[in-house]
Design a protein that fits this description.
This protein is α/β, with parallel strands linked by helices and about 300 residues long. About 25% of the residues lie in helices and about 20% in strands.
């Protein structure tokens, strides 16, 4: 699509991370109930050794070196949606959260881990200015020609990690997408914790972790003419994947930057540069993790 947007004097840079899974072991036994009992038990036995909270300063230093204008976190900030975990994220990323124009956050399934967390809008209570006041889907204009839409299909499920987009959210998204061309949008970032598709190598990972109505959500992009980058997480492997069904859609998954795999962490993140006419995406990580990136299409 030819661009009517003049080139920017300097490019606008977005850094995208996901799936930090910040965790806490609460002392209050009343918090060890229901699904959280399973999650905290898994944390004690396995997950806590894999997600390295002490690596957060190193990750933040890398993001600072990236000279980002905007930070996107596509969900699973926390592990069991405890207030303490949200507070720890807020403290670690305080430098990004002071100005809502500098950061966008959407929840992941672990940030909607329990029904009380959803009912009490714990995610929104902590990060409302950065998630459209919790009115999903929401839209932001990041730079001339570059827009962002945040979407939330996350639901607390007692026995699975599946998501489902509500019908009213799909209707609102349909309306927003229909307005983008008249707004002069040349590139769109769609921020949603779940992908609707995955590279062939990782499709098995979506079993029990997929979007129940992912095909319905994906259908909204099949005839959408504006180049779109679907920024997500959920599966802890980094990839770039061109949609098989929507020709203008590319999925970008940074993986989990502080997940220890084979004794090492990646600090993986996507760096996206918009110059007013073209968006370029580069996956950055520590050198030993460069081979982890899966690129398909």
């Amino acid at each position: 699509m030819p661009s009517s947007t003049p080139p920017l004097e300097t490019s606008y840079r977005v850094v995208h991370i996901s799936d930090l899974h910040i965790w806490r072991i609460p002392a209050n036994p009343l918090l060890w109930r229901g699904k959280r009992l399973l999650g905290l038990s898994n944390l004690v036995l396995r997950r806590g050794r894999r997600f390295r909270r002490e690596a957060l300063p190193e990750l933040l230093a890398e993001i600072e070196r990236d000279s980002a204008d905007h930070l996107v976190v596509s969900g699973d900030l926390t592990t069991t949606s405890l207030d303490l975990e949200f507070e720890d994220f807020g403290k670690a990323f305080d430098g990004w959260l002071g100005d809502p124009s500098r950061a966008t956050l959407v929840p992941g399934n672990h940030d909607r881990y329990t029904r009380p967390a959803v009912r009490e809008r714990v995610f929104e209570r902590h990060f409302s200015p950065h998630c459209g006041e919790g009115d999903f889907p929401f839209r932001k204009e990041l730079a001339p020609g570059l827009a962002l839409i945040g979407f939330d299909p996350c639901r607390p499920n007692p026995f699975s990690a599946r998501g489902e987009a509500p019908g009213e959210a799909l209707a609102s998204l349909t309306r927003l997408l229909g307005e983008e061309r008249s707004r002069g949008t040349q590139a769109l970032l769609f921020v949603c914790h779940y992908p609707a598709e995955a590279p062939a190598k990782h499709r098995r990972h979506l079993k029990g972790h997929d979007l129940v109505n992912g095909e319905e959500l994906l259908a909204l992009f099949q005839g959408f003419p504006i180049p779109t980058w679907w920024l997500h997480g959920h599966i802890h492997h980094p990839w770039s994947h061109r949609s098989r069904l929507a020709p203008n859609l590319t999925y970008l998954n940074p993986g989990s930057p502080i997940l220890r795999r084979e004794g090492k962490i990646s600090l993986g993140r996507w760096v996206l540069d918009w110059d007013g006419r073209e968006l370029r995406a580069e996956w950055r990580s520590l050198p030993h993790s460069a081979s982890e990136l899966e690129s398909e299409g």
